[in-house]
Amino acid sequence: MAFDIDMIKGVYASMGERIEKARKLVGRPLTLAEKILYSHLWEGTPSKQFSRGKDYVDFAPDRVACQDATAQMALLQFMHAGKPKVAVPTTVHCDHLIQAKVDAKTDLKRANQTSNEVFDFLESVSNKYGIGFWKPGAGIIHQVVLENYAFPGGMMIGTDSHTVNAGGLGMVAIGVGGADAVDVMAGMAWELKFPKLIGVKLTGKLSGWTAPKDVILKVADILTAKGGTGAIIEYFGEGATSMSCTGKGTICNMGAEVGATTSTFGYDESMDRYLRATDRADVADAAFEVKEHLTADADVYANPEKYFDQLIEINLDTLEPHLNGPFTPDLATPISKMSEAAKENDWPLNVEVGLIGSCTNSSYEDISRAASLAKQVSNKKLKMKSQFTITPGSEQVRYTIERDGFIDTFDGVGATVFANACGPCIGMWDRYGDKAADGPRNTIVHSFNRNFAKRADGNPNTLAFVGSPELVTAIAIAGRLDFNPVSDKLINEDGEEVMLEEPRGYELPPEGFAVEDAGFIAPMEDGSGVQVVVSPTSERLQLLEPFVPITTESLQGVKLLIKPFGKCTTDHISMAGPWLRYRGHLDNIANNTLIGAVNAFNKQTNFVKNQLTGEYVAVPDAQRAYKKAGIKTIVVGDHNYGEGSSREHAAMQPRHLGVAAVLVKSFARIHETNLKKQGMLALTFANENDYDLIQEDDTFNFVDIKDFAPGKQLTLEVVHANGSTDNIMVNHTYNQSQIEWFNEGSALNVIKKENA
Ligand code: SF4
């Protein structure tokens, strides 16, 4: 059904020679990340050494995966590329559009009614272009990829930032925008700045209450939300090899939360076990034969300080369970310090809901460990104090845990099992109906990866803390944020003091995985006769028109649209939640453009000055007024602008509405690339303090845009309302082919031209 063993054997067949050549060029032993990168060059056998953090390199990924929310726009774009079939194995996964409200069955039925138009579109485009289709309810993209497609030493891209999850099986797997996926699906090279390398040495072994999740929560504490930017994190050491493959997946998954390009682990027996358990003995055998290529050269892990740009060491013997949050995944609190931290910060101690599962933490191991705690509820005469929900990552996991009695255990504590989908992790959780925006201040704990404001339930007053599934379960039993299961006792129904026993579980199901209908639909051999129909009156889908190039003339008299204050993630630029329904309709979804960003001049969201009238209006309204008047605009932002997801809508929407440039202190990598792909200007302040010069009524002239060239700064004349001007210098990272994207209006326009 799933993987392509011949493709994998082909990758392995060429690895040895390519790695040997790279080793000679670099002149030293290689890390695992370097081996994978150098053996996936577009040019084939390497001919030169690349500079980390400097050189743009063309790669040839082995696979592409798309989730339903981003696949719509990616496939709408691919339809313009003029190709009869995708050039590399590609899959589409329906997981983001299923709202969690009642239970799996009811919610899936409703999603199939409300989003049938989108699912039908994705299925027919998949069928036409040779793409594997995972229907709604089949599972979450990253869990399904880990179970079916990931393989040690491979390289893949996916239109979702948590594609990095596949690093758990020793891949270099990278989250990209749909436009990048279109390049690879169309048989073109995929370009990436050669990443820097961060080594994480894990000494000791996990035990007791500490889980793989705590490793990445600690890494997030050390690196912060942007500390991994532009780097691949490579984990090694005794703590790495002694951990399960799915545990490695959890750690790699949340590498996205430190901004890392991706994370990976060297091949070991846990990967062999996982491949065999998921019915891929032939991949396991093939990997075993080339295992020396699937991990770093010996000296790298013996003397890591010589090979990595940054080295972190974590001792798993002393690592405590952590809870990270609220509102940012890098605010880490060891559980023993939570009582103090909660008091200091006035975090509500009562935990209303505990949620486990998601692509981050829904392995058999996670669920069995959580279930071992849920079992203790009745055994110890306790009651689950918080609501408790489970979102399994795939039908295979769900079917197996049902067979093994864990679903019954969860039912026994009154838990709700949601559909095998993203649900609460992406704001598709109907917790408050239409009252979410005014929801009460409250605390939830979950085992997902992100906890930005409104991310789970749309309520800005929900404080979400991220922890391991076992810690989330224990806290849900206690109902308190400051409950430390390592040391605290609970009072049971008989008034006795009891302690929870340490969680226990199985790395893999003792009886093996099982599933009746995994939810996969293979495409037709010849899909040329398949008709893809998009209604012109649809509110969910809209065929695309190519973007018109931004002329140098239109870059004079540019108005400020908004200067966001503080964090401006892709959620602020293009909100998820209810807006997910418009992901395939550019004009409709553009009505959410930047509505979550805080205006630096009045500290309000979605309330900016329309310079043409002087009135304060919603951001999309102001932007549509400028568009109508034929005036281009600019967005000015702070550090790490566009962090969060790979969603290209955050670039396409402003582009569609007429924003020409985004000028910030620094960018999140994927978003910067997405802006470039859509033919916009992605610029950074040469002098960060110039950010403070930008005023609400400013007009901008790109005085030397005619000289736009790689490595050359641009000059921006800022004209203030009183007529005074400031000339500021701005940097960019465009290379010549990216400048071509700008000149042609978009990267897709360039592909089309080349295919014409
Ligand atoms: Fe879905 Fe959440 Fe995983 Fe994203 S992080 S794929 S929204 S479960």
From TrEMBL:
EC number: 4.2.1.3
GO MF, any single term: 4 iron, 4 sulfur cluster binding
Keyword Lyase in annotation: yes
Boundaries of every Aconitase/3-isopropylmalate dehydratase large subunit alpha/beta/alpha domain copy: 34-479
Reported cofactor(s): [4Fe-4S] cluster
Cellular component, GO annotation: cytosol
Domain Aconitase A/isopropylmalate dehydratase small subunit swivel: 561-688
Pathway assignment: Carbohydrate metabolism; tricarboxylic acid cycle; isocitrate from oxaloacetate: step 2/2
Record-level GO BP terms: tricarboxylic acid cycle
Keyword annotations of the record: Iron, Iron-sulfur, Lyase, Metal-binding, Transit peptide, Tricarboxylic acid cycle
Protein name, entry field: Aconitate hydratase A
